[in-house]
Amino acid sequence: MNSRKKVVNETNEITTEKKTSVISRELEKIAVKNLGTITPTIVVDEAKNSAHPLHGHFEWNDKVAGHRFRLNQARSMIIAQKFTCQLKEANENKAVIEVTKKNVRKYLPDHEGQERFLPRAEVLSEEEHRKIIVERKLSVLRSWCDSVIDIDELSTIRSTIVLLVI
User: Fold this and answer.
1) Alpha-carbon span 143 to 29, nearest angstrom
2) CA 88/CA 134 separation, integer angstroms
3) pLDDT higher than 70, residue 108
4) Mean pLDDT for all residues in the chain
């Protein structure tokens, strides 16, 4: 999607800015305002004001879409936020992994099952959060293995995953 929006900057110049840049910037402001926490409800509440930069990214006509739909729109915006990450890992049991310019999710769901998201670094730095995220991801891998059991082209990958996580 290459949608662009005209915005007025600090010097009152009208410029064109990518939709994703506007969303990213505004979600960051909302997260900072809420001490790092962001939820679909908070995003929708902020965007209700017609002057808010995110207002136009929601369907406000209740005949077309209700509040739940707007919460799903906000959730999708949060989940879509990514940042570029560089990883380098090496130890005696693993080969060196080097990933450059890999986009990863900026916010991860809170481990308490609430409808809120926290900055990725915060979630992964807390032991309990990290354990829950790891278990969720292992569950996804197990489910994926079950879903491709009869696809021969993926059998080598499936077998490797099965040996490691099941």
Assistant:
1) 36
2) 19
3) yes
4) 81
Q: How far is CA 120 from the centre of its chain?
A: 9
Residues 62 and 11 in one domain: yes
Q: Are the C-beta atoms of residues 116 and 75 closer than 8 Å to each other?
A: no
Domain span at 37: 4-125
pTM for this entry: 0.53
Nearest CA to 7 out of 146, 151, 18 is that of 18
| Number of domains observed in the structure of the chain | 2
**Confidence (pLDDT) at 52:** 94
58 and 120 in one domain?
yes
Helix (H, G, I), strand (E, B) or coil at 51: coil
Phi first, then psi: what are they for 53, rounded to 5°? -60, -25
Whether 2 has a pLDDT exceeding 50, the answer reads no
| Cβ atoms of residues 117 and 134 within 8 Å | no
Alpha carbon distance, N-terminus to C-terminus of the chain: 38
Q: Using one digit for the tens of pLDDT, what is the confidence trace for 118-145?
A: 888 888 888 988 898 899 889 999 999 9
